[in-house]
Amino acid sequence: MSPPHFGVKNKFGDTGFIIVVRYGLVEIAEIILQIDITFLMTRDSEDQIPLVIAMNQNNREMVSLLHSKIKIEELDACTQMDIFIGSIASDFYDIASEHFKFKPSLAWTRSKNGDTAVHVLARKSPATISSKRKLNSFKSIMHTGFKKFYRKDTMSTVAHQLVVGIAEALRNFTTNEFLELINIPTRILHDAARAGNINFIIIFLNEFPTLLSELDDRGNSIFHVAVKNRQEETFSYLFEWGGSKDILVKLYNKDNDSLLHLAAKLPAPQHLNRVSGAVLQMQRELIWFKAVEKAMVASPYEARHSTLSLSRIKVEEPPSHSGNGQPPPPKCLTPRELFSKEHGEVLKNAKERMKSMAQTCMPAALLVAAGVFAAIFMLPGAFCATVILVYHKEKTHLLLIFLGVLTIPIVSVFCFIWKDVAGILHNLWWDRSFLMPCRKRMCRSYTC
């Protein structure tokens, strides 16, 4: 196929050069561009240029080739915006930083869907943006032989510098311009809190501290969003604000939920399933509830949803057969009552799982213990007439004795696990059983 044919579109609207870029054929792409550089600006069926396509494919070599052929100053505004947003979306922050330095207004120019680069950065995962502006010199030395890890750390550092540069540039905005930028189409700090992008939040709050009190349309602060989405680092950042946090922890949203009510609610499956198994999920949820409870200054621990609330948490009760047959009025729940109601199924599964584990492990532990002790006392020729161990100097026999002694604490641990499960099944104070760390259970088992 001759180079001109690479500009012909197929039935899907893609040219031959676009297909070459999609498949990452760097050498062929370089040959084509040497003959006709205009292929750089051809667009696919989704109106994307080859450079953005290569970024989406995360093909670093192809991206480097295509970007080296592009002259930023010769691009139109739409193409500049596509490259800038595409580089941020695909974590090519070195390219994004270069374009931002050339034209800072790219950071607040809106794309076709109304987003800006600031919104895209806010929705990034927590590990995307480094906590420091410069790469640690020790890390630089350690990563010299590991390009993949070095590049990842470098990109996160450049991302931090990019966010700082954008935040500093936004100082020149008027109040109305700034609020319009950060609140439309979505609120950037709430997006960052939802994603757990704590370093983005820290950078922007350092530049604009008043954003801490910004609420979304439902009256949620960024910490309400963090608790709802179980973002630990974002919630922990609350404690660094001293007296300001006293106001935030007492805040109720329009659904009349406090931070503690949100912690009491069952999170979305993607947040609950960060740990596997009902036991660990229940323990994690209880730790969250206790942490938020501790953060409440004047704790509304037993505060119920206000009767003036338009949206209340209701307890479903069977219909009454007396009077007019209507069910009794809904009850408002305290955070603990709400936690019990929302996590009932998880608690049930956790109890069943612990009981199943104990039932499985106990017979195995007892069989091992019985077998080892029997091997010690019934080994042929183990004793002579003077009741002295004949094989007391043999290593294999000493190993059996050691294993016999070792089974004592093992059986003790399994017995204690069984005891704990029984306590959970019959104990109304359910949270203590799940909150106790495993190491404490094991240590305490040696004394039982």
Automatic annotation (TrEMBL):
The keyword Transmembrane applies. GO terms for cellular component: membrane. The keyword Nucleotide-binding does not apply. InterPro entries: Ankyrin_rpt, Ankyrin_rpt-contain_sf. It comes from the Eukaryota. The chain crosses the membrane at residues 364-391, 398-419. PANTHER family: ANKYRIN REPEAT FAMILY PROTEIN-RELATED, CASKIN. This is Uncharacterized protein LOC111008833. The lineage of its organism: Eukaryota, Viridiplantae, Streptophyta, Embryophyta, Tracheophyta.
